[in-house]
Specification:
- It is a single chain.
- This protein has one domain: Gcn5-related N-acetyltransferase (GNAT) (Aminopeptidase), CATH 3.40.630.30.
- Helix 1 crosses helix 2.
- An 8-stranded mixed beta sheet has the order 1-2-3-4-5-6-8-7, with helices on both faces.
- By secondary structure, the chain is an alpha+beta fold.
- It has 4 helices and 8 strands, in the order ββααβββαβαββ.
């Protein structure tokens, strides 16, 4: 079980401090997470049933970010065997539009990577739409490299790219 982490985050745009807490997501968060997923993604959004399965699976790690007590974003991933090695796979990273550019997505990603590394993953990978330049830039700044094009990955004509990052081993 992942721990809950609370840190004050300096809001660069407004100059105020915000209380950001990351904790495990539960099935009780389902409605909120589904609403955020639909806000963040269009036709490729996970369905409520898919999110339910991910939240209930013992194989997945699901985290929510609470900003002053409000769910501001979430991330879901799992440990998988990729090329016969333990790898972390990020399925979705979502931040509510009004809370973007405050470091919430980055914080969720770092927490998930840390959990993956503690569980023995050497690599973290994810897929992103080719036209999602903001996400691709965030991942690039965090050490991810684009390793494979994904033609028609989301739907016909909607391409993606796979990114990977070597994780620092946790001691």
């Amino acid at each position: 079980m992942a721990k809950s982490f609370t840190r004050l985050v300096q809001n660069r745009r407004f100059g105020d401090s915000l209380s950001l807490r990351v904790k495990p997501a539960t099935i009780h968060n389902l409605e909120t997470l589904h609403k955020i997923e639909r806000e963040c993604f269009t036709i490729e959004a996970f369905t409520k049933e898919q999110i339910t399965r991910l939240l209930e699976s013992s194989r997945t790690v699901s985290l929510v970010a609470l900003l002053n007590g409000e769910v501001a974003g979430f991330i879901i991933g799992s440990i998988e065997n990729l090329n016969e090695a333990k790898s972390g796979h990020v399925y979705t990273l979502d931040v509510v539009t009004k809370h973007r550019r405050r470091g919430i997505g980055l914080r969720l990603l770092k927490e998930l990577e840390h959990i993956f590394a503690k569980r023995g993953a050497k690599v973290c990978y994810l897929e992103v739409r080719l036209d999602n330049l903001a996400a691709r830039e965030l991942y690039r700044k965090q050490g991810y490299t684009e390793v494979a094009p994904l033609t028609d990955y989301y739907y016909k004509g909607i391409h993606g790219v796979r990114l990977e990052k070597l994780l620092e081993t946790s001691k």
